[in-house]
Design goal:
Elements (H helix, E strand, L loop, with lengths): L1 E4 L5 H9 L3 E4 L11 H11 L2 E4 L2 H10 L4 E5 L6 H21 L2 E4 L4 E4 L1
Parallel strand pairs: 1-2, 1-3, 3-4, 4-5
Antiparallel strand pairs: 5-6
Length: 117
């Protein structure tokens, strides 16, 4: 799968997804880095069919109103350490991948995956 990890999430998350065999960009990899505007992230997502991984509710609004980005993985954990986040993704990666093959909007919390229709 192809992912674009947004600025509020650590580069390490992007690296761990890459180590799992996925095609991953972090906003730090883009020319404007973490200052890349949401509209440009959405544009890249649509052009390259990348799943945006974010904590930013603005992407939820954009997705619900305009069906952009291409697909959305919302991280709804509140404040969480990078280590806890890495563990959460590691434990749930196969379920996340399976859900994202079916659903365009998936949410991960500390305890569950929510598949939005």
């Amino acid at each position: 799968m192809k992912f674009l990890v947004d600025a509020q999430l650590p580069r390490h998350l992007a690296a761990s997804l890459k180590w799992s065999g996925h095609d991953v960009l972090h906003t730090l990899d883009l020319p404007s880095g973490n200052c890349t505007p949401d509209w440009q992230i959405n544009e890249i997502s649509m052009e390259e069919k990348r799943i945006v991984v974010t904590k930013d509710d603005d992407f939820v609004n954009s997705f619900l109103l305009s069906e952009v980005p291409y697909k959305l993985l919302l991280v709804s954990t509140g404040n969480i350490s990078n280590r806890e986040l890495a563990t959460l993704f590691s434990k749930n990666l196969s379920a996340l991948i399976a859900a994202l093959k079916i659903y365009d909007f998936v949410e991960i919390t500390r305890s569950t995956l929510i598949e939005h229709k």
